[in-house]
Amino acid sequence: MTQIDAIIAQMTLAEKAALCTGATAWTTTPVERLGVPEMFVADGPHGVRRVPDATSMALGALPATCFPSASATACSWNPTLLHRMGQALAEEAIALGVDVLLGPGVNMKRIPTCGRNFEYFSEDPFLAGELAVSLIDGIQSRGVGTSLKHYAANSQEEQRMTISAEVDQRTLREIYLPAFEAAVTRAQPWTVMCSYNRVNGVYASEHRQLLTEILKEEWGFEGLVVSDWTAVHDRVAALQAGLDLEMPGPRPRRVQAVIDAVEQGELAEATLDEAVRRILRIVFKAAATPKGHPFDETGHHALARQVAADSMVLLKNNGILPLAKGGRIAVIGRAAREAHFQGGGSSQITPIRVDSPLDELAALAGPAAITYCDGYPEGDSSQPALIAEAAAAAQAADVALLYIAMPRFKEIEGFDRTDLDLTRHQIALIQAVTAVQPASVVILNNGSAVAMSEWIDGAAAVLEAWMMGQAGGGAIADLLFGVVNPSGKLTETFPLRLADTPAYLNYPGECGQVRYGEGIFIGYRYYDAREQPVLFPFGHGLSYTTFEYSPPRVSAETFRDVDGVVVEFEVTNTGAVAGQEVAQVYVHDCAAAVQRPPKELKGFAKVALQPGETKTVAVPLDGRAFAYFHPGHGRWITEGGEFDILVGASSADLRGAVRVTLESTAALPSLLGPLSSVNDWLADPVGRVVIGPLFAQVQAAMQATFSAGAGGDDREAMDAMQFVAGAPLPELLEFMGDHLPVPPAVLIAGLLQQVHG
Ligand code: BGC
After folding, report:
1. Residue 709: pLDDT above 60?
2. Lowest mean pLDDT across 146-155, 262-271, 586-595, 671-680
3. I need a labelling partner for 132 at 20 to 30 A (CA). Which of 27, 107, 676, 713 fits?
4. pTM (global) more than 0.90
5. Ligand 1: does its nearest atom lie under 6 Å from the Cβ of 160?
6. Is the CB of 229 under 6 A from ligand 1?
7. d(Cα 740, Cα 733) in Å, to the nearest integer?
8. What rounded mean pLDDT belongs to the chain?
């Protein structure tokens, strides 16, 4: 008997029920008499939000390093750096007495307006999964747990507590679950947090398929499932579905409901024991990490600056960047004075310190003469005087730097944006400044895609600085002056207009349901398939140097799915300064039985190169990189055939391709059933043989019928054959009437017996 089993054996029913619900807003319930300690959890993904009082749901927290938010860090495409950031987060959690950090969030960016997109990595499930694995590994390598969230299909804030995401199984498996799957199977987060919403009508907190069948049984999740805060509706149903820990607490009525359900035989005590076992395993794991060591604040601040610089994306540059030192610089925009470094809501950190972008710029600008003006008001009002002042300052300078932050009232947890735009005032400001000063650089702080068509043509350069964390101000200066060469690339498409986006007609839903009607076609999968122009494609980002790619090679032109294949190519820095390139590998299926996106990201590498230096990049692709989820078989399958492996600097800047042939080893059972059509039977390798004689009989009967009548001919018989081939087999057999020796149902049962054995 393990130590945990021994404890469970001694626990009363009341103690077990209590353990499955929080004691406070942030702690689990201890069982002192048995030496079970409490466990302290805290938000969030880009910093430790340790509230001083565990009973409080207020946002105020003890100071911690605020790193860039997920939409920024993802653009680094740098798992190594995320791992390091994870370790730093864990060091801070340890210092602040936190056992489990409530993050990362790996929900897909289905719509660019989702109010929490700043907390999520990408519109691409593979990329989000890779980054989550690194961050979780980094955090957990120091003995601090994580909470992978929000599971699942939680891609809008509108009606987030109740909306039902109506999503088909293939879409769920190929788009909304793989990031969770990768994180669970490869990094084993200590906890997974269920989302608020419903999935196909069932609350995620009560979703047995998601929580038990997929997460625990199929993926082998060993940790505990925790509810999002107040996401539980029926405690007993949630436990039965696989929800182990309800947060926050205390919730005495919930505890009593569990006790009653066991006593009345509605809930098996074994089910409760399983939840208790999972919770105890994590509680003891957490307790094994001694807490309270201080952390290196200065080192973490420097790391936050490095992460920010690695994550910012240079979207446009007509050559004005990097800036030369000296001259007159007009700094415009209040985001230069007050850094916009994080989003609002549960992930809000109390930063240890915040670098002023303006001061950091001044520190690097050398002898430059800097003037500053606010440019835009804090709220949504229009103040033409601010624009006039900014335009005058820009005109009097050699270069204008516009620091523009998407205001908090437009972008925050709990609400979705209603458009993709900056404020009307900000747009007018940029237009006025760029009209008088062609050497204008726009620096953006925001958490998700922004529309720019109204002003981008006037800007000489645009730097996407994201919600950049407490040290982001310095990172902007580093990039503007070329102290660091930009290397971030977009992990979400920037569309031209909201109306162009994949879910435009299927958002926000109605009558409590949102239909994921675009299916697997989200993000670049959609824009590619529609050949729809975008503002900036997925994977885009500029550098101060240039990179060349050699043609790609593969380890084998023909390979089996179980063996996979390795694609290799050289990347050379052909410019004059050192830089990092994010090389991307996509897979295109040349022919498939189902609709597939034109290409899907399946690998990437960030390569640091000195001027003139060449490095070989090797990206392994396993069978899964070529597979799709077959709803009929209820599993991932590979189809043998040709695929193109595409290598590029972005999803729209492909530099090379190599064709390979995959041999599928999948032994798939036949899907033929009583209602399968003739076409289905003919497409099935065994069915084709089994139905052969009968099919010949049908053909003959048809021929006889159509050729016999006045004006009838063989052609008519063939047309009729084609017409009925799509109909269920029973219908066709009815047509044969008395020619059949036995009734159709009996005949088909016999045929199916031959197919399925
Ligand atoms: C959020 C979670 C967060 C929790 C605790 C919820 O409202 O959705 O992401 O971890 O609150 O603050």
Report:
1. no
2. 671-680
3. 27
4. yes
5. no
6. yes
7. 8
8. 95
Fold of 547-663: Immunoglobulin-like (2.60.40)
Strand partners, 405: 445
3-class DSSP assignment, residue 614: strand
As to burial, measured by CB atoms within 10 angstroms (0-12 exposed, 13-18 middle, 19+ buried), residue 287 is middle
pLDDT digit string, tens, across residues 298-328? 999 999 999 999 999 999 999 999 999 889 9
d(C-alpha 546, C-alpha 88), whole Å = 33
For the chain, domain boundaries: 3-287, 309-530, 547-663, 678-756
What pLDDT score does 708 carry? 61
Q: Is the dihedral of CA 687, 693, 697, 703 positive or negative?
A: positive
pLDDT of residue 355 exceeding 70, the answer is yes
Structure tokens at 150: 């929000």
For the purposes of burial, counting CB atoms within 10 Å of the CB of 291, is it exposed (0-12), middle (13-18) or buried (19 or more)? middle
Distance between CA atoms of residues 641 and 660, nearest Å: 8
Q: Give the position, in ligand 1's atom list, of the atom nearest the Cα of 103.
A: 10
% residues pLDDT > 90 (the chain)? 87
Ligand 1 atom 6, closest CA: 229
Nearest CA to ligand 1 atom 11: 229
The verdict on the CB of residue 228 being under 6 Å from ligand 1 is yes
Q: Could you tell me if the CB of 157 is within 6 A of ligand 1?
A: no
State how far Cα 652 lies from the chain centre.
20
43 lines ligand 1 (CB under 6 A): yes
Provide the 3-class DSSP secondary structure of residue 571: strand
Q: Which CATH superfamily includes the segment(s) 3-287?
A: Glycoside hydrolase, family 3, N-terminal domain (3.20.20.300)
Homologous superfamily (CATH) for 309-530? Glycoside hydrolase family 3 C-terminal domain (3.40.50.1700)
Q: What residues are annotated to the active site?
A: 228
Going from the Cα of 346 to the center of ligand 1, the distance in angstroms, rounded, reads 5
